[in-house]
Specification:
alpha+beta; conserved putative lor/sdh protein from methanococcus maripaludis s2 fold; Elongation Factor Tu (Ef-tu), domain 3; Helix Hairpins; six-stranded antiparallel sheet; six-stranded antiparallel barrel; 3 helices
Length: about 375
Amino acid sequence: MQTRALQKPGKLKRMLIMIGLVLLLIAAIVGIKWWTISTMIAGMKPPEAPTVTTIKASYEEWQPALGAVGTLRAVRGADLALDVAGVVTRINFQSGAEVSQGQVLVQLRDDDEVAQLRQAEAAAALAKVTFDRARRQLDVKAISQADYDNAAADLKARQAAVQQAQAVVAKKQLRAPFDGRAGIVTLSPGAYVNAGTPIVTVQQLDPVFIDFHVPQRSLGELKTGQRAAITLDAFAGRVFEATVSAIDPKVDNDTRNVRIEASAANPDGVLVPGMFANVSVDVGEQARQLTLPQSAITFNPYGETVFIVKPSAKKGPDGKPEAPTAQQAFVTTGNTRGDQIAILSGLEEGTEVVTSGQLKLKNGTPLRIDNSKPPKNDADPTPQEQ
């Protein structure tokens, strides 16, 4: 029993020594790890400042405009067809050619109808001779009034028959209803066509109409005679001048939009019906607006912001000022035009603002400014630039 009591302090001592060694080992490992990490951190270069582009907010003259997408329509256009069936004998125009009002475009076989017309004309001529003779005889009381009336009635009937035969012959011809450009014709002489079958389209292309729609809230800004600008993807960089020519007197019950018609000169005929066009109608008076590229605006659920460039008052080891930093600011935006957007509040003229690279920024981020390739800032870009 006494021997066991003496052994307990020895075991406790050995246990304490082992615990101390373990703790010492852990401390050594932690120290080595801390020293390694500290050395790595000390050897790391500070992160480079993100590269951004900037621009200074400036005032520009803005012409308020109402934008829409429209469709071109000919001032006059028709798909032509014949009233009667028949065999084509002549086609008197080329596909895509200019045609004149009244010009015979397609002729059907009309031999029988022309013969009947000649017969009716001969009968009318004989009735005219008979009527003239009856009138002279009536003057000398050689015939009765009844005989004269019969001769007059016969003449009118024969003349009506001529007109009827002429109408039948005319239906064998397809004529241009107005000056314009003919479409593509696929008929050939000898082909049989049915009544009512479309043969060719004729479109009068100068001027052309542009139909577009605007919301009812914009109706008060529009009136006939206002200037409009038309651009099309097919003619990049070209702007066609137009004028608002008509405003529909009612609002569509389903869309609550109003149909507007504009007219544009088209002397070279490059604008053709059915084309889509971008329409911009000048509304209101010109005004000075503080302007930035749209790319400078960051849209967030809590508002629209920009990053302002704040110069640093500190100097680096080389004695030069340190890199400027970013500072986020809330702004209120207005209308847009092309690549630009109007700033209504939140900025002052001359404030330098970041225009690209905002995703890498937060308040206080140092900036590296490179404006060698700035974002587009065109008030009236061509469709290819947008």
